[in-house]
Amino acid sequence: MKKTILFSLLASTLLMAENHTVLDDSFKMDPSLALLIGTVKGTNSYAHAEVIYGLEYGFNCLVSDMLRQQVQITNYKDKNLKMTEISVNPHYMINVNSNMQIGFGPTLGLARVDNSQDKDTIFTYGAGGSLVQNLNETLFVGAEAKYEWSEDASLSGVNDNFNNVKIFVKAGYRF
Fold it and tell me: What is the pTM assigned to this prediction?
């Protein structure tokens, strides 16, 4: 059920973004693709930081060009534990100057957790902030930090949350 809800939300967001001519002919979707790399640390006292990597597809929201939607797919591995997550992250973007923006907003996602003996899919939610520096018309770099809460995953009979802090940098291309 959780997968159906998230993927329905993602699909409807992408479809509505393409249907911009209904509201305003001046709307510019401004799609982008970025590589992500950084660190993730669970909030449990025994957790330690691990490398996280992934991809981000971004585009302007239909409602306002101040809202930028980011769909991220991230992955990390810690010994026998693997976690792959897809999340949607709408950010309200504020122009600092003509080449730099800061943003903040919520994050909603689904994560597939695998400890090599058992697997579970969990719902994640949180909040984060970002900084984007445009290098030219097509290239950009940025940084993002977010805190995510999660529902408990049941792996090998043990229930545990995967609350975490993620900090990463990104380098991308606008189409």
Answer: 0.78
